[in-house]
Specification:
Elements (H helix, E strand, L loop, with lengths): L2 H18 L14 H15 L6 E8 L2 E8 L5 E6 L13 H4 L3 E6 L9 E2 L6 H14 L5 E6 L1 H10 L6 E7 L15 H8 L3 H11 L8 H13 L14 H5 L5 E6 L7 H10 L3 E6 L6 H4 L1 H13 L1 H4 L5
Parallel strand pairs: 3-4, 3-6, 6-7, 7-8, 8-9
Antiparallel strand pairs: 1-2, 2-4, 2-5
Length: about 325
């Protein structure tokens, strides 16, 4: 087993051990530790959502695994676009991008059910097959067909998981620093900051984590910062990341959709190898390494990221000339 794989597994074993040793409460929730924690987090979420600064509606969709919280925005006649956020980030993370991408698209931002968000899990931790089934229930509810998808970090892995399924309804795909999609974590020692934040949450460790994952943490809104910190402080750990292994060559080659892959040049999750593997096995892909961007590239370099997304989804003739 490679050193990278060993670090990844050790990372999450320690994470789960830390969670198991925490004091038990009578509050039964698969994501949050206490009822008060969930309330405080939800209040922070609502404040962050106002950063979108565009009209939106929030809906709760009942599924076989719990309630899915979906934020809907953009013109009703726009092409459907599903947003899949990064780990513990929730759908509020799209605030630096939403005005641009919602201008001509009908947005469906879905809170992942196994993470801190406004979705509510009523089943135990879901398998990959159950994750696919959960999303398909939401897509069926909204009658989504031939829709585009943008996935960030863990959301990028999920977008790829959905795309490798036969008879899916996805059209174009945008992957923003997809986690464990093309390779295991690139710099596991550096990402240990996130582990210690989970085990021993503090503002100091949170600031260190942001500096590890972002080249410009000062660009992150203090309002969103608060919500993101509470997600790490209040939420239980789960084993779902252990199931996120890189996709095989044949799985990637089965994706015939147009795919845009964006990775920051300071990303601790991905590297040049990620882009090379994407180029080799995604037969209809465009890959770009973004200068002066970390794992949080949608914030670090939001303008370039937004321009790349729009040119890829809406203006393919202009996309060829896009340079970083």
């Amino acid at each position: 087993m490679s050193t990278s794989k060993i670090y990844v597994r050790l990372f999450f074993i320690l994470l789960l051990a830390g969670c198991a040793s925490s004091k038990e409460t009578k509050f039964e929730d698969y994501v949050f530790k206490t009822k008060n924690d969930k309330q405080n987090y939800t209040e922070a979420y609502d404040k962050s959502l106002k950063l979108w600064d565009i009209p939106y509606t929030e809906e709760n969709v009942k599924t076989s695994f719990g309630t899915a919280h979906v934020i809907i925005a953009g013109p009703k006649n726009g092409k459907d676009l599903v947003l899949l956020h990064g780990m513990d980030a929730s759908s509020t993370m799209w605030y630096p991008n939403i005005k641009v991408i919602a201008k001509n698209h009908r947005i469906y931002a879905i809170d992942f059910i196994m993470e801190p968000s406004k979705s509510t899990l009523t089943a135990k931790s879901l398998s990959s097959e159950e994750i696919v089934a959960w999303y398909n229930e939401i897509f069926d509810h909204y009658k989504l067909k031939k829709f585009d998808v943008i996935g960030a970090s863990r959301g990028g892995w999920i977008a790829t998981l959905l795309a490798v399924q036969k008879n899916n309804s996805i059209d174009k795909i945008v992957l923003l620093s997809p986690a464990q999609t093309f390779k295991f974590i690139d710099k596991p020692r550096k990402t240990s900051a996130a582990l210690f934040l989970k085990l021993f949450p503090s503002q100091k460790k949170f600031s260190k984590t942001l500096k590890t994952f972002s080249t410009h943490p000062e660009k992150i809104s203090p309002i969103y910062n608060r919500q993101f910190y509470l997600a790490n402080k209040y939420a239980k750990s789960n084993s779902s990341m252990l199931k996120m292994t890189p996709f095989s060559d044949s799985e990637l080659e089965s994706i015939k959709n147009p795919v845009l892959v964006l990775i920051g040049d300071h990303d601790v999750i991905n590297s040049d190898e990620s882009l090379e593997r994407a180029k080799k096995h995604l037969t209809n892909s465009k890959t770009i390494m973004i200068t002066d961007a970390g794992h949080f590239l949608s914030i670090d370099q939001s303008k370039f990221t937004n321009d790349a997304i729009i040119n890829f989804l809406e203006k393919p003739s202009n996309f060829v000339s896009l340079q970083n």
